[in-house]
Structure formats: C-alpha cells, structure tokens
Amino acid sequence: MLTRRRIPVQEPYDAPGIFTFLADRVIDGVEHADLDQLRYARTVHLPHGPSAIEVTYTQGALETTLELADAADAPDAVGRVQRLFDAHRDPGDVDKHLESDPLLAPSVRATPGIRVPGAANYEEMLVRALVGQQISVAAARKHLSRLAEAAGAPYESEIAGLNRCFPTPEQIISAVGDPESLEPTRPLRLPRQSVKAVVASMRALLDGELNVHADADPEELFTQLVARPRIGVWTANYVLMRLLGHPDVWPEGDVALVAGARKFGIVEGKQHKILARKAMDWAPWRSYAAMHIWRNAS
C-alpha cells in the first residue's frame, strides 16, 4: 500500500547537503537518488515486512511516500525518515554557536541549517561503518552494493530505482561464508580481519551481545562497540552520530576531517589530536561542526 506524509522541517534546512551526502553513499538497488529533484528513495526493514520510502524536499517540508507491507508500520516509517533527514533539529542554536568561531563562521553563513544524516536500517548502519573504515566513500559503496546484490532479498517496488533490501545479519553471515576465503567472487573483498569483524558483529547482533537501535544509550553503545575487535573510536563515534543522531560526537582520526580542517586553517598536517582538542570549542554541537568540515573537504 502507498500512503503519503508531509514531514515539516525547521528552516533554514540544508537540503542539497543532506541529499548529496546520501546520494554519494547510495547502495545500488537498495537506494536511489536524484539530486536534480532533491529526491531520495530506499527500502527499509519494518516490523510487518519489507517496505520502501521516497522523499523529496519542498520548502519547509519533506514530501514522503511510504510503500508499506502493513499500515501499522506508518509511524515507524515516518520516524525513520525524520531521523534519516534530521528533521527535528532546530538549526538556530547550532548555527549561532558554530558561527561564534571565526574559523567556522564563513561556512555557517554560506550553509545555514546544516544537518547530520541519520540511519534508516540500524544493522545496516553498523555494516556501513565497518566496511567504510580506512577506505574511500566510493570504494565502500562498491563493496556494500556487491554485498547487497549477493545477499539482499529481491523487492518489487512501485518506487523507481529500488529492487532489493539490504541483507539481514543472517543473510550476511550466510553469503560471506568463510571469512578467511580470498575467492575473487566473494561479496566482501576486504582484508580478512575486516570481513571477520563484519561477520562477528552480525553474530553479536543475533546473539544479543550487541544492541544496536535508535534508542540505545550512547555511552553503553559506545562501550559495547569499542570492546569489539576492529572497532575503534572513529567507527563507534560514526555509529553514534548517524544511528543515534548524537549532536556532539567527534570522529577522531578521520582523514577527510583533517583535510577539511587544513582548508579552514585550523590545523597543519595530520594533527588529529590537535583538531580533537579544538573541536571541544564546538561542543555541544561537534557532529554539526564535523559536517561543515567534511563539506569543506569535498
């Protein structure tokens, strides 16, 4: 069934920024984006079955089409759109605080109402963070698209560009098989230790050792994540930023952040620790400062 919702956002709203961020990371078949129309669509796992959402931006609102297996999933689907597009945030306090720093002020004035993209499928967000460690956005997209094609269930949609769901933890474990394998056709062509980390994390989700969901306690989730092999501070903070919509985390160690900070004149060279200390000035909105710097880096 198709139903439509109008989800208000508080202006200013950096729609081009958040749609571009999502478009750059589209997983083929699972997601689709059209930046000319500021349109984004994706499949989602909802309680009553696989579904899909389509979102376009008009002044002051996200015009949303919900393709649902059951009407009872509508509130859940709307909530996911709100989190994915950071629709609840009042940009006034964020912009005022960040603009008080002369180094960030030009970016804030040029891009008011910047938002932090969230997550629609929570297990998927963890896989994205693990796969994206120390590789480019484009490379991560290729790995994730290959994994979705190999393991994701087909999905027939009336929404253009969608034909499959992102694989569940069970499907990922089954498709990856032996993490030690170096077969050229394997769905995740990453180093062995990275593949092991993905498989182990999926098993931990199924066993209840790892609780990844939108209402998780930030400190507890961070502690659970960094206690696991191959999950460091950057990965844990990236999950908190996007999965929980945490406004004040700093993904220390991110190469693109340092590159962007050099353009701002904040640091020279690969000075991750110096940048992390400087980022304390932007609390309690460090996640939004990171978005400004990432945007500048690109």
TrEMBL record:
Q: Which reaction does it catalyse?
A: Hydrolysis of alkylated DNA, releasing 3-methyladenine, 3-methylguanine, 7-methylguanine and 7-methyladenine
* A Pfam family annotated for this UniProt entry: HhH-GPD
What top-level class of enzyme does the UniProt entry assign?
A: hydrolase
Which key words are in the record? DNA damage, DNA repair
Name the domain of life.
Bacteria
- UniProt domain DNA-3-methyladenine glycosylase AlkA N-terminal: residue ranges: 4-121
Tell me which GO cellular component terms the UniProt record holds.
Answer: cytoplasm; protein-DNA complex
Recorded hits in InterPro entries, A to Z, give: AlkA_N, AlkA_N_sf, Alkylbase_DNA_Glycosylase/TA, DNA_glycosylase, HhH-GPD_domain, HhH_base_excis_C
- Give the protein name, as stated in the record: DNA-3-methyladenine glycosylase II
Query: What organism, scientifically named, is this protein from?
Result: Corynebacterium durum F0235
